[in-house]
Amino acid sequence: MPNDSSERRRRITAQRTGPLLIEGPVEVTLDDGTVVSSDRFCVALCTCRRSRTYPWCDTSHRKPARPSRTDTPGPEATSELNP
């Protein structure tokens, strides 16, 4: 950030299980070089990467994560439970 007096510092609030809250307006540069911007007074940046509107948070972090394939029992496990 330039050391210009017209630029004011932005406040970023980190939450343990949620998004980063940033006082806006903001410009965000994604890993592929795409720049997205928001003129809102406060924006929520997704940190769980489950958002359908990434990089903006859509509260997907509130939903339980899908179990991985190794966590779900296979057909052999269910046949043992139901003889």
Write the layout of secondary structure elements.
Layout: E1 12-14, E2 20-23, E3 26-29, E4 35-38, E5 42-45, H1 75-81
Antiparallel strand pairs: 1-2, 2-5, 3-4
Strand content: 15-25%
Radius of gyration: 20 Å
Largest sheet: 3 strands, antiparallel
Helix proportion: under 10%
**General shape:** globular
Briefly note the structural class of the backbone. mainly beta
Give me the count of strands. Answer: 5
Low-confidence stretches: 77-83
Number of helices: 1
Give the oligomeric state.
single chain
The termini sit apart by 67 Å
Mean pLDDT: 79
- Strand order in space, largest sheet: 1-2-5
Order of SSEs:
EEEEEH
Describe, in short, the structure shown.
This protein is mainly β and 83 residues long. Helix content is 8%, strand content 23%.
What descriptors fit this protein?
83 residues, mainly beta, three-stranded antiparallel beta sheet, two-stranded antiparallel sheet, 1 helix, 8% helix, disordered C terminus
